[in-house]
Amino acid sequence: MSGRAATENTAMLDEAANIKQGGAEEGITRVRAAGLQAAEWHRMAQIISQVSHDITRRIEEMGQYHF
What we know:
Elements (H helix, E strand, L loop, with lengths): L1 H21 L2 H37 L6
Helix pairs in contact: 1-2
């Protein structure tokens, strides 16, 4: 899921850069929206990474596995 979020984030930023080159007022609004959506995907990737890390540590603490 983190990989997917990173890919989506990059695609949205690329789209934002393409839109920004147009320079129209509508384009600026679209850039802002794409940037906000990219930020949401980035934050989701951070949360997923942290949860995965926490789960791994808890499994290790229980002594069942060692990663």
